Protein: YwiC-like protein
Amino acid sequence: MIVLPVGAGIALAGPAWVHLPLVATWWTGYLAFYATGLWLRSRRRPRYLPPVRVYGTATAALGLALLVLAPHLAWWALPFAPLVAVTLWSSAHRRDRSLLNGAVTVLAAGLTAAVAYDAGTSGHGGLWSTGWLAAGATTALPGASPDGSLTGWAWAWLVTALLTAYFLGTILYVKTNIRERGNRAYLLASVGFHLLGAAGTAALAAAGTLTAAHAGVWVALAARTVAVPVLAARRGRPVRPMALGLGEVVLSVLVTLTLLLG
Structure:
């Protein structure tokens, strides 16, 4: 989750030197966020504070270097700030395993695809040079859907949305197999979410906007939300977390590749 979205954004825009401090800031920031969450969950015990200071200082230094190279990226603090605030609040109240916390963490990770694209295209493409209004671009931007109907930021946002949707779906899927195993409501939510994703991507594939391969991956995602919990229930024992994790590594790579190589 901390690799594929930002990697997809880099691939869409084309690698640039600015991506090095961007990735360093993102990964170090994630470590700072994790360390801070652990400190908050421990009720601010002093022994958990040193990693917060180390990673926090490193993130601040790298972030400053990034803003010197790409000052237009500063605006991204606006959507990220409330997401970080919610997840830190969740940690402080020991709700770090809640759906809300999982969702905002995924949203933040998913947005890095758009941030990396913005960095790689030097802020071209629309309102405040952020690409929100793709029609504002004066030069052609990289990236296009298989049929060419979506280009530049329009395609980058769809890729961002689909990657984010995949990782949001994994929250429900993993919970139905571990913490919420046997919870019918979670199972139905997981299956329903993935069926909507499969239907949506199938419609876009039929229109030529996405590849049939990507839609096929979503069909597989929907199928595993039913098959894995049902098979585990019949065997009378849960699926091992390691097996779930390895399966999601493969599927996440397939989701990404079928978007980028269409």
Remarks:
- DSSP finds nine helices and no strands in the chain.
- The two ends are 21 Å apart (CA to CA).
